[in-house]
Amino acid sequence: MDAAFTEEQDEIRRTLRELLHKRCGPDEVKAAVRTPPGYDRALWRQLAGQLGLPGLALPAAYGGAGCGPTELALACEETGRVLLPSPLIATAALAAPLILALGTQGQREGLLPKLATGELTATLAVPGGQLATALALTGPNAGDWAGGGRAGGIQAGARAGGWRLYGEAAQVLDGHTADVLLVAAHTGGFARSRTLVFLVRANTPGLVRTRQTAMDETRPQARIELRDVAAELLGEGEGERGDGAVAGVLAATGAGAAAALAAEAVGAADAALARTVEYVQAREQFGRPVGAFQAVQHRLADLYVAVQAARSAAYYAAWSAGGARPGGRRTAEPGAASLALAQALETLRKVAAEAIQLHGGIGFTWEHDAHLYFKRAACDELLLGPVHRLRARAAEEAGLFADVNGAPEASGVREAVDA
């Protein structure tokens, strides 16, 4: 791995940071999240149209920039720095890679160029709050997480006129505004049970979308209800692709998404730490700046080391995920994605908590800007974690725990971690 960034990668970071510094301060974020879509549509059009943000990791043949997970992670680090509310993660890190890997040529040509320019947004809908499981971040995704015939999942049935979906999914990122939904659904009954991915357009009859109230308003989520909704299978006919192929693509998508989310969390942690350092240098207590006290300096130094370690893990996970893309010469490092995400989420939680503490009495007021980072840390771990499961999954993938015969003791690891 070459740890040095190219001029192009540095330019992506610099340009995006300058734009977001001008257009996305805390007051602008608070105003944007309280609009019906939950983000600034004008800013999103600028980020997509002028900078090509959602198409960074897409091939040039489909209107993208032809870059990879590393460039997307660098962009996400900058958007995380300002806690930008936008459909970037849902569109670029979740939906677009699935369409690229599973879609037919017609589906790719019809959707990816519009996603790359921001004309369309998309997201992945997974039932039962099982996003981390579906992406193989907290455990194997070969099970019946999509429904398995139980209530609460999403079921798909083939009829003469095509596929129909029914069921519901909560905690769908940007699900209330996405133009295209990629819905993971269970089909085949008991004999041919498997999970497939379907395309559902926003204006399809029977689709009900409700924005959910969440503690972190910068990460809008929705509840999706599918009431006998017409859907299009993503990819070729159902007989040509089994459950294992879909699970493998979801896992590969999870590796890239985890790297982007880890970088985003690192950016948020770095910004929260910088704000805290600035405050303790200006705030005086007992006739001297708070930051002059050695105990405060030690706490800040520990946070700095944690942020740098999380950043290194996120960059490595992005570099590793790039090898798993079509045409890549490497395979993704086992466990790198889950471990990087765990490190980043834990670091953001620690930095946000210390930021509130070190801001003193004003930091404990709910309206203070420090709470934006605290809310992001808490809700991201609920959505993508918990951290101990991410680490357990990384250990399983890397084969760190094995019995005398060399077989991984995955169940034993999970039982020990859960205890």
UniProtKB/TrEMBL annotation:
Q: Name one Pfam family in it.
A: Acyl-CoA_dh_1
Which UniProt key words apply to this protein? FAD, Flavoprotein, Oxidoreductase
All copies of domain Acyl-CoA dehydrogenase/oxidase N-terminal, residue ranges = 6-119
User: Per the database record, which ranges form the Acyl-CoA dehydrogenase/oxidase C-terminal domain?
Assistant: 259-396
Question: Which GO terms label this protein's molecular function in UniProt?
Answer: acyl-CoA dehydrogenase activity; flavin adenine dinucleotide binding
Q: Which cofactor does this sequence's record say it needs?
A: FAD
Cross-referenced SUPFAM superfamilies: Acyl-CoA dehydrogenase C-terminal domain-like, Acyl-CoA dehydrogenase NM domain-like
As for family, the record states:
Belongs to the acyl-CoA dehydrogenase family.
Which PANTHER family does UniProt cross-reference here? ACYL-COA DEHYDROGENASE, ACYL-COA DEHYDROGENASE FADE28
Name recorded for this polypeptide = Acyl-CoA dehydrogenase
